[in-house]
Amino acid sequence: MKYSFYPKLLIRTPAKPFSNFSPESLSRVLLDKDFQQALFMASPDLYIELKKHGFAYELLAVEHRMAAYKYYNRMPI
Known about the structure:
Blueprint: H1 26-29, H2 33-42, H3 44-52, H4 62-74
């Protein structure tokens, strides 16, 4: 079987190692500038909602906490 590849290839890799993943650390991760930038690129609307609350986990509505967790969960896998 012969494979041919497109001349330009994009490979996605995790931003953080899996060993750093902890659901309990979401409040800390929300304050991370790299996470905020990635979130802005992925979902500007969610970024704006989190920014309104200063990225403070305790001030977020449940649906915003869950959405942020889903983005965080995808980072290190």
